Amino acid sequence: MSETMNTFEAQQQGRPTGPLVHGYEVIIGFETHAQLSTASKIFSRASTAFGAEPNTQACAVDLALPGTLPVMNKGAVERAIEFGLAVNSHIAERSIFARKNYFYPDLPKGYQISQFEIPVVQGGVVEFFLGEEKKSVRLVRAHLEEDAGKSLHEDFIGQTGIDLNRAGTPLLEIVTEPDMRSSAEAVAYAKELHKIVTWIGICDGNMQEGSFRCDANVSVRKPGQPLGTRREIKNLNSFKFMQQAIDYEVRWQIERIEDGHAIEQATVLFNPDTGETRAMRTKEDAADYRYFPDPDLPPLCISEQWIQQVRGLMAELPRVMAERFVRDYGLPEYDATQLTQSKVIATYFETATKACGQPKLVSNWIMGELSRRLNEENLDIAQCPISPDKLGWLIKLIEDKVISNSAAKTVFNTLWSKANSAVVSVTLPMVTFTAGGQSGKDEVESLVDQLGLRQMNDTGALEKLVDEVIAANAKNVTEFKAGNEKALNALVGQIMKASKGKANPQQVNELLRRKLG
Ligand code: ADP
Ligand code: MG
To answer: What is the pTM of this model?
Structure first.
């Protein structure tokens, strides 16, 4: 592995120096295990479903009974290809499975089938924003492997049980270059990666259930120095802990060095209760694993034709979609990024825009009023009680000057509570986001009428109101004529009140100015 270390080192010299912590630069590289969302395991037909009774989903292959042989799950390979395409990697036309040998109770074969020298996904890049700044983290590789079982420590009876349900669950291990320079950047990377794998649907992304587990390799150095020795924080399964663990680890390493000690390469665990990292074992080197090609599995061969077929079935990626939102809808990059945080948000936006043809207004409503209400009630946009076509029609009514902005908020709130009282939680599967439906339009319009919010478009009636208010407010009129602009606002307010909010303020303003010369 020392060769690998040297390449990492060479590659890091050209990168810009990161923010310093007490004079040290922080270097972080990630290894992420994403459980692939196949129904069955990577080399057997046992189910991968989470949460079953222990050992009910481990077949002879997973139990490593003598005479069993692994058979590659095509779905797992397809998901690896999809990932590679999503991050612009090279998909190896021929990759090799290897045995990684170690002894542990939850690994009945005594080795894990993984990929070592030739992984299926090679290179690639993950791009994201850290605040305003665009960052890119290069990937070294992503390889297919099997998950191990779980040791269940039953402290109250002083025994440890083994559950092999997880053994053989397909994993894609995604390895970065040590390109990250702060805990905040590391978390932003992990969030982006999480978005990518869930967006393309190769992983359910459930961090609590262990579907997406990150190991953070952390070292510190004085700027310009070679890379420092790293310690690897294992199994970070929440973004919050990730940040805390890295921050703690950085402080710990700097203190050690300042106290005159050398950092020893080690694997550490983060304890959320104490907020500390603790060494679990000194780090094994690749040689300790005695890797060798698995004679039970032939090389994994992927044809260009297969890659193209997978590519053809893949949905548009978030980054590509955001670029399209900027290009086709004229949205600012910020809006486009926000609206492509998930497929549901993006679909909601596009459906509402189809109904009203006002992308920027839709974006404002989604990021403003809608997000505020969703947050307040702790709802996901998929549970939003107002369907996107209704929001679209509402916006169209504002645009067509049928209702005022403030009236639209009233309609919005009424729609919201009506839906909420009808059903407790409405889940809107993506397929129901159909645009242009007449029913949404009718419902919104009839609600506007029920609430009596239609703006006064009859200029005759409006003029009459204006005249009445002018006659009744001689003081304001005199003041305005004497040059006091504020007096006009007072008059507009009077007219709006008299019209019960149904007058168009701009129209009122114009009429007043005309009448008062
Ligand atoms: P392993 O942990 O399996 O031995 P590697 O040696 O390939 O694997 O490195 C694993 C991870 O450690 C990679 O994500 C890499 O970017 C990161 N890494 C390597 N050297 C350093 C370092 N000095 N500081 C921080 N991260 C590092
Ligand atoms: Mg590692």
So the answer is: 0.80
